[in-house]
Amino acid sequence: MxxxxxxxxxxxxxxxxxxxxxxxxxxxxxxxxxxxxxxAFRTWHRHLPDDVEVLAVCYPGRQDRLRDPFPASVTELxxxxxxxxxxxxDVPLALFGxxxxxxxxxxxxxxxxxxxTLRLFxxxxxxxxxxxxxxxxxxADDTLLTVVRRLGSSAAEALKIPGLRDLVxxxxxxxxxxxxxxxxxxxxxxxxxxxxxxxxxxPACRLDAVRAWSERTTSGFDAHVFPGDHxxxxxxxxxxxxxxxxxxxxxLRAVRPIRTTPGRPPLEPHRT
Length: 272
What we know:
Blueprint: H1 10-14, E1 15-16, E2 26-31, E3 52-57, H2 74-85, E4 93-98, H3 100-112, E5 117-123, H4 141-151, H5 162-181, E6 194-199, H6 207-211, E7 221-226, H7 237-254
Parallel strand pairs: 2-3, 2-4, 4-5, 5-6, 6-7
Antiparallel strand pairs: 1-3
């Protein structure tokens, strides 16, 4: 189990908000890719309704958590995130995870399973049991950096800066180690609907293996294929979030609110 370097409350330790919502109707909990940080979701609130609060997970060893030890496994990480999010379940919750974040989000969704969990969005990830990253366990630094650059993130350019590369490489290696050691429960199934998103030129995702997320839920499943590579969501952020918003609004219309406020108007899309 990770031991935080500060006495910060779990909610503030694990989650970052780029727009705090005083009275949210729902929350979207976002999980970064391998080597990623909460800044990947820093502008997402601009594309979603004003009363949907976006929270980005900050993994140990990132940003202001550099002194916190990396998790030993995906299950350990998911268990700690689940405990931290428990106080925030007073309103419906949806989860979004990209790449490695999709796997962690899935494991958190399994632990949170309840009518209050609206939907799981998985992005840039083959379904659990359909990928094998064991070859990266003992990979040299240059090999890891080559893998990251091949995936197409705009942040990969920063890895050419020696000082910054040395700062982020341990997190990248730790995350690939989590993926290499991940062994999903073959019998586990969500009762939560799943939406799988991917780029049509993603070198890390075979389309059939992305669609195999349908086998991980007993509820509804949708797949959206976008033009682009593994990081299609960077240039197509607004288009992706229009799809996310459509699903969330439909879900919120269909579920009974956990908390009602007399006289509160219906949820309306955020207008930019």
